Amino acid sequence: MKKIINSPDNYIKEMLEGIYIAHEDDLTCVDGDLQVLVTKHKKEGKVGIVTGGGSGHLPLFLGYVGKGMIDGCAVGDVFQSPSVDQAIALTREADSGAGVLYIYGNYNGDIFTFRPAADEVEMEDDIETAEVLGADDVASAGPSAPGEKSTRRGVAGIFFVYKCAGAAADKMLSLDEVKRVAEKANNNVRTMGVALTPCTVPRVGKPSFEIEDDEMEIGMGIHGEPGIRRGKLEPADQIVDEMLEKIVADLPYENGDEVAVLVNGLGATPLDEQYIVTRRINQVLEEKGIKVYKYYVGEYATAIEMAGFSISLLKLDDELKECIDHPVDTPFFKQV
Amino acid sequence: MKKIINSPDNYIKEMLEGIYIAHEDDLTCVDGDLQVLVTKHKKEGKVGIVTGGGSGHLPLFLGYVGKGMIDGCAVGDVFQSPSVDQAIALTREADSGAGVLYIYGNYNGDIFTFRPAADEVEMEDDIETAEVLGADDVASAGPSAPGEKSTRRGVAGIFFVYKCAGAAADKMLSLDEVKRVAEKANNNVRTMGVALTPCTVPRVGKPSFEIEDDEMEIGMGIHGEPGIRRGKLEPADQIVDEMLEKIVADLPYENGDEVAVLVNGLGATPLDEQYIVTRRINQVLEEKGIKVYKYYVGEYATAIEMAGFSISLLKLDDELKECIDHPVDTPFFKQV
Amino acid sequence: METSYLITLLKEISDIMAENKEKLIAMDGIVGDGDLGLTMTDGFKAAYDAVADGAVTDAGKLLFAAGKAMANKVPSTMGSLMATGLKQAGKDLKGKETLEDADIAQIFASYEAGVAKLGGAKVGDKTFIDGIHPAVESLKASLDAGDSLVDMAAKAAAAAEEGFKATTTMLAVHGRAATRGEASRSLEDPGAKVASLIMQAFEKSVQ
Amino acid sequence: METSYLITLLKEISDIMAENKEKLIAMDGIVGDGDLGLTMTDGFKAAYDAVADGAVTDAGKLLFAAGKAMANKVPSTMGSLMATGLKQAGKDLKGKETLEDADIAQIFASYEAGVAKLGGAKVGDKTFIDGIHPAVESLKASLDAGDSLVDMAAKAAAAAEEGFKATTTMLAVHGRAATRGEASRSLEDPGAKVASLIMQAFEKSVQ
Ligand SMILES: Nc1ncnc2c1ncn2[C@@H]1O[C@H](COP(=O)(O)OP(=O)(O)O)[C@@H](O)[C@H]1O
Ligand SMILES: Nc1ncnc2c1ncn2[C@@H]1O[C@H](COP(=O)(O)OP(=O)(O)O)[C@@H](O)[C@H]1O
Ligand SMILES: [Mg+2]
Ligand SMILES: [Mg+2]
Ligand SMILES: [Mg+2]
Ligand SMILES: [Mg+2]
């Protein structure tokens, strides 16, 4: 394990200390618990939006805490959920009377954290809560039947859910309305990833999986879980084509539909490669008659130091376009 | 070589195509040459600031082309300089009557490009030019004698030179004044890096150097050139201490001096580790009585997919602080 | 039996997880993200540490406190499920200052019920439930048959291990393993292995 | 000699760089960034390609055009230096439609002068200059001695190779290699190797 750390046991603590130091003007923690992080720019009367999940995905999740996006985040150990108590403390801090929306990935560990927390703050603090579970990873399960809850995992596409819900909340919409917008974004986003190398959880000390020098893992999980296909590494264009085939087929598109595109590096993929991928995405979507309203390219949701990338497509309507255009100022993501 | 590319020969072209697609509203190329890139938001009467150098360092150099920073960039092949003709075309486009300042790294390849270009545009187009050569890498050579030109290479610290000069130009200062500010920033910035893994130039196809699984290379060059010390990988704090020792000693500091700090990932280093480093930097500077005015943490100047990081310190006075605070909006870097 | 026996039990569980840390990491690495060895080791250690001083003598409060400590320490899928199992057992044993064999059997029945309620998994879904459920059934049968505690524990441990082994015939429907469809069938479920380890620890704790 | 000989010369240089591509990458990888094999191969190929059709017969214009093509193709340290050498030779041979032996010697003297002017390196700085300079000296001596062109070339190639070998006694003062101080001394300079290869190509071109 080749990492710039002091000890695996202090990994999260020291990382968080660095975050509070670097972003002192914008972020603070709740009750001295570094793992419960809120914005210093709380907007009174606004619906609070909070999230949470394991560490190891920076800038996800805590990096999006700020103006125009989300209000707080509870982070667990690497790839581990935060605790119920932390979620409770977070919710209390994020509420300013208009209720709190939980947006987090559809993953049992996190569900087991946020649902009990919601129960408790509703009972004890009369805070109204709602939840939207990110479930954009088309490689993690088939589509759910109408009415059934999705079994898909939430991955990088949750960025779009934060972005849209954050804009709606910033416009001072009600909890119901913010939830409706978040759900719309969530229903309209699809993601798929590919890994070239594994990642190493510091306390585990060895890579999450083994992969040959000429192989790739299509559809791997964001913790390095096995994907849907292991195969020889292919040219960038071919990989993009396979991924887009799955992503686009999963949500019906009509000629002229518009999308926002997120090309996301998983941690160790040079930006150059992400732009080579962007170029191909543009070609393919043009062929399919899908118009790109906006591109986001970079590291938005990583798996520590995994090499690889994911593509997320968010289908837009006028309301979501307005949300996409809304300015944002968070430690890791700014849109002017 | 495990890369998401189509062919090494098309690496730069396809990467640049992706950049123009993703940042269509902000960037355009000159005369159809993708390697010569200018902002779409040219400010009339402003001193033009241009830069250039090899590809493979994203977001350096072209990522800083935009409002409040620099106006254009010529990029060469991976780790190669752009050509004289490209630098000439760039200069002509960036000038709007107030002259053009070249800011680029102190490296023969680039000097051999920009000096002849400056000669030509001064002769043929009556464009006034000036140059400031980034020379912040304390590991690349000893300090130069007073009056002697530096033999140090320019690395990540050039970000601060862009930032300060960009602010000065945006405030509509004259070429002389912008150059003065750029020089001040340049004289006040020091950088040192450490590499954990090499990088692979696509057309070379193999890593730039070999390094054991438990070794690090302190002071490596930004193209993966050998550094000043190869040793066993140490805890983060110890590495930071060694680097800061060299950086701080190189420029006299007094108790109470203020700095801007750039913690820069070289391509494959997780943000988590960069924040662990940030935490230690803060401790050490506090001990030394140096106050941090602002932190920048992330990938600002990479070496393709090298793992490692660099630390840059910019010593501030009131004028430079104002420059640091100036808002910026470029494809890769935004400051609100 | 004194309720301090529960401390012994938690100690055995904590120890067996630590012994099997690498094995659980490896097993979870095949079907999931490989963290199970860490969460089970840290979680059961936290559960044990929270009550090790013997200050709490109410069996229910002791188990609940252990569960709460685990929940805060390792809030992952299995971490939360195991914590909830402990807390459910705590709720059901509240007020007991001594333990009959039937109470001991009840602990595991409550444990299973807590996990099932939070996670919603059914027998045959290839989860922890498939390890714990046969053990709980075996404990009931032993109670009816009047087996000694030692025999009860041995039979339950054997049943759990068999349940675990049988997961190689099941299709995963929960968590990441479910992604792999038919390919998941022949793989052992690491959560069920945890159930088997818990019952082995129980067996040791009564020897 | 016809000026088309220059096309042959450029072809030999281009070929020898291609043959030594990996060797130059490896050598530059030790002291620098490892790109020299790429830039020399691509650069001299571009130089040759620009004039290969024989359309330009003025020796000066031909060499200058070759240099310009190389400058645009590989604007790196050595790329720019080599291009400037060619351009300087072009300037100095302008107007010549045939070539005497003295003109040929002049090409290399001009080449060295161009490189020295742009780069500012002196003999002993452990650069390209340390390979080319002894060769240029040898060419002058051969001219004075009345050597045949074949002999001139062979002696110059030997001198360049010796000059290259002698770089292992020098301390680097230019470029990245200079960072390493005393540790750089025993290392071969890859730019001087390029000088030696150019002179080898020259030797072949007159056989
Ligand atoms: N709903 C459920 N009920 C019971 N056990 C479950 C459930 N979902 C998953 N499990 C068990 O959890 C194990 C994985 O636990 P863990 O490693 O904590 O998951 P993850 O790392 O994905 O959060 C599986 O092997 C399975 O036995
Ligand atoms: N000022 C100079 N004059 C002549 N040759 C030089 C000079 N500086 C460097 N060189 C030569 O250039 C070689 C390296 O060339 P190159 O690989 O293009 O450099 P880089 O990759 O650092 O730009 C060195 O081996 C040296 O011989
Ligand atoms: Mg997990
Ligand atoms: Mg797991
Ligand atoms: Mg080189
Ligand atoms: Mg180079």
Tell me what the structure shows.
The complex is a heterotetramer, with two copies of chain A (336 residues) and two copies of chain C (207 residues). Chain A has two domains: 8-187, Rossmann fold (3-Layer(aba) Sandwich); 189-323, 2-Layer Sandwich (Hypothetical Protein Tm841, Chain: A,domain 3), CATH 3.30.1180.20. Chain A contains eight helices and 14 strands. Chain A has helices at 11-22, 84-94, 108-125, 158-170, 175-188, 236-249, 271-287, 318-325, and strands at residues 27-30, 33-39, 48-55, 72-78, 100-105, 129-134, 189-195, 215-218, 229-232, 258-265, 291-298, 308-316, 328-329, 334-335. In chain A, the strands form three sheets. A six-stranded mixed sheet of chain A has the order 1-2-4-3-5-6, sandwiched between helices. In chain A, strands 9-8-7-12-10-11 form a six-stranded mixed sheet, with helices on both faces. In chain A, strands 13-14 form a two-stranded antiparallel ribbon. In chain A, β10 (258-265), α7 (271-287) and β11 (291-298) form a beta-alpha-beta unit. The termini of chain A are far apart. The mean pLDDT of chain A is 96. Chain C is built from nine helices and no strands. In chain C, α7 packs parallel to α9 (190-205) and α8 runs antiparallel to α9 (190-205). Chain C has one domain: Alpha Horseshoe (Serine Threonine Protein Phosphatase 5, Tetratricopeptide repeat), CATH 1.25.40.340. Chain C is globular. With 207 residues, chain C is mostly helical. At the A-B interface, α1, α6, α7, β11 and β14 of A face α1, α6, α7, β11 and β14 of B.
